[in-house]
Specification:
single chain, Rossmann fold, 5-stranded parallel sheet, 8 helices, 5 strands, 54% helix, globular, kinase, Thymidylate kinase
Length: 210
């Protein structure tokens, strides 16, 4: 099960609350957050590039997408093992993040060439596990940017990167996310109101019934 949304949407907060609610409902839950900074060399290269390391690497949409994909490929066996040991494996970002941000950077939609290429790479070629559901935590780009800025001011380890500070990119990414959700890309999507808040106990009950 995957939580998706813009930078600053509140994905980590939702993941923590949903984990508690699922545990309360009797389910065993484990979680992984992507990119796996500090655990994966590919994720660390992503972080460095987003903060203007490695020359013009961050300017390459396909190059960055490949690093994100390789980070997940390195975690594929761990994901499968956890699926065998737990009722729910909760992923904070997954393949859809790569699809949404890459397509947005190229000014493409969810039906464009980039999203098709990415599915062929991550799902068909790398064989990553297909999620059972996506939870899209939807907020406007302005709300997400404000939250990300306040987060950066209180946590030096979460300074905003070049994607997070690009307001136009965030707005285009939001549109692509909506398109992915509307088409049920890879798995069913549940769109959640990230501004009004999420009733996580009710959400947990609903998800366990599906």
């Amino acid at each position: 099960m995957v939580i998706e949304g813009l930078d600053g949407a509140g994905k980590r907060t939702l993941a923590d609350a949903l984990t508690g609610a699922l545990n309360d409902a009797g389910a065993s839950v484990t979680s992984i957050a992507f990119p796996r900074y500090g655990e994966s060399v590919h994720a660390d290269l992503v972080k460095e590039a987003l903060h203007r390391g490695h020359g013009d690497l961050a300017d390459s949409v396909y190059g960055m997408a490949m690093l994100y994909a390789l980070d997940r490929r390195g975690a594929a066996d761990e994901i499968r093992a956890r699926l065998g040991d737990h009722d729910v494996v909760l992923l904070d970002r997954y393949v859809a993040s790569n699809a949404a941000y890459g397509a947005a950077r190229l000014h493409q939609g969810a039906d464009g060439e980039f999203v098709r290429w990415l599915k062929e790479l991550e799902i068909d070629r790398f064989g990553l596990p297909v999620p059972v559901a996506h939870l899209l935590l939807r907020v406007t780009a302005d709300v997400a940017a404000d939250r990300a800025q306040r987060r950066a001011e209180t946590d030096a380890a979460r300074a905003r990167d070049s994607f997070e500070t690009d307001d136009a990119l965030q707005k285009r990414c939001s549109v692509v996310y909506d398109e992915l959700a509307a088409t049920g890309w890879l798995a069913p999507w549940h769109v959640l109101d990230g501004v009004a808040g999420v009733d996580t106990p009710a959400l947990a009950t609903s998800l366990l019934r599906t």
